[in-house]
Amino acid sequence: MQYQLLGRSGLRVSEVCLGTMTFGTEWGWGADKHESFKIFESFAGAGGNFIDTANRYTEGSSEKYVGEFIESDRDHWVLATKFTLKDRNDDLNFAGNHRKNMMRSVRASLKRLNTEYIDLLWVHMWDNTTPVEELMRGLDDLVTRGLVHYVGISDTPAWVVSQANTIADFRGWNAFAAIQFEYSLIQRTPERDLLPMAKALGLAVTPWGTIGGGALTGKYLRGESGRVPDHSIRRSEHSSIIAQTVVDVASELGVTPVQVAINWARHRDQVMIPIIGASKEKQLADSLGCLSFKLPQEMIDRLNEVSKIELGFPHEFLKSEGIKEEAFGGLYEKLENHRN
Ligand SMILES: NC(=O)c1ccc[n+]([C@@H]2O[C@H](COP(=O)([O-])OP(=O)(O)OC[C@H]3O[C@@H](n4cnc5c(N)ncnc54)[C@H](OP(=O)(O)O)[C@@H]3O)[C@@H](O)[C@H]2O)c1
């Protein structure tokens, strides 16, 4: 296991993070406590120190299990949890990014996790309502009070994250160190704005769903069962062609499809720390095998080709030959170090 600095912070985290949305059986497809512990032990044994949960996962069981598992060596672990999503039905203030829910949710998480502090608190998703100043000032208060050490944001448009970090920087508040979003061979749209933004702002990227919930292992092509329903976009005709290419590349390299899929998501020239999900210990062991090799460029090119997307406006427009020549007078040919 190698380690990475989390964005512009000095925090050291393992190069992969353990996802624990599968800890607990409440959602119908997770692992029981015994299997969850085996997954946790396997990750710890491989040198992992970075663990991801959320207030909402498996109705609180995930946080409770994680709290128990890390208790004997709490300070060793970089513990990340999230707030935003509802903890109670029929109460509008028990969800969202506003200060009242933030403080309430963090207090409840600390209790379930049985700890005095959270290393990294994620805003789980953008709620389209809370003013960005309220969000950033609330998070800064949690850091100042020592309840939270670092903050990150997940599932949020790039323009909101840019605005939030710019305001935080100018006001001397804690800014986001990391960003979380779905990114895989079957979900490449973050290449439009989220990934370039993360690079420009120095945010660590911790992608989720790098194996498409299991679809990129090829198990559905073989008729095996799993948690992704057959009507899911992750199992569409196009996704299946991509999954088949992953399977082919893996067999040519003598590795497993899950290792190819995760490594593809790690290959970019910016800090990429995949959050690895598993419902069985042997799945995690398989995924961790991705750490022992790098994908050859020709395989990356093949995977890029089969999964390519349109970047859309303004990216395609700015890249077009006409614009480069007409608007900038051939600048890109003459400049050696243009940025993109
Ligand atoms: N911020 C967010 O909104 C957000 C959203 C989702 C997840 N997350 C985080 O990211 C983590 C990972 O997300 P994810 O679980 O959705 O995505 P994932 O890593 O793409 O998929 C994990 C699933 O793939 C299957 N799998 C894993 N290894 C396998 C193997 N070797 N062979 C066959 N199947 C295998 C398992 O499903 P089966 O049970 O079907 O075998 C497993 O539960 C979560 O635990 C959570 O911490 C964050």
TrEMBL record:
Residues 16-307 form the NADP-dependent oxidoreductase domain. This is Predicted oxidoreductase. Coiled coil: none annotated. CDD domains: AKR_AKR9A_9B. GO terms for cellular component: cytosol. It comes from Dyadobacter psychrophilus. The keyword ATP-binding does not apply. Gene3D superfamilies: NADP-dependent oxidoreductase domain (3.20.20.100).
